[in-house]
Amino acid sequence: MRNEYVPVIGLETHVELLTKTKIFCSCENRFGAEPNTLCCPVCMGLPGTLPSLNKKAVEYAVRAGLALGCKVATVSGFDRKNYFYPDLPKGYQITQHFTPICSGGSLETPEGAVRIARLHLEEDAGKLFHNREDATLIDFNRCGAPLVEIVTYPDITSPSQAADYISALRQVMLFCRVSDVKMNEGSLRIDANISLRRPGEPFGTKVEIKNINSIKFMEKALAYEIERQTALLESGGVVMTETRRFDEKSGKTEPMRTKESAEDYGYFPDPDLEPLLLSDEYIEGLRLTLPQMPEELKSRFISDYALSNEAASRLVDSPDIAELFLKSAAGLDNTAAGLAANLINSSPAEAVTVRPERLGRLAEMLNSEEITFTVAKTLLSELSSSDFDPAQAAKERNLTAIRGEELKKLAKEAVKASRKAVRAYLGGKKTAVMAVVGAVMKASGGRADAEKARELIIEIIENESGGDSDS
Ligand code: ADP
Ligand code: MG
Ligand code: ZN
Question: Which residues constitute the domain of residue 347?
Answer without folding.
Answer: 292-396
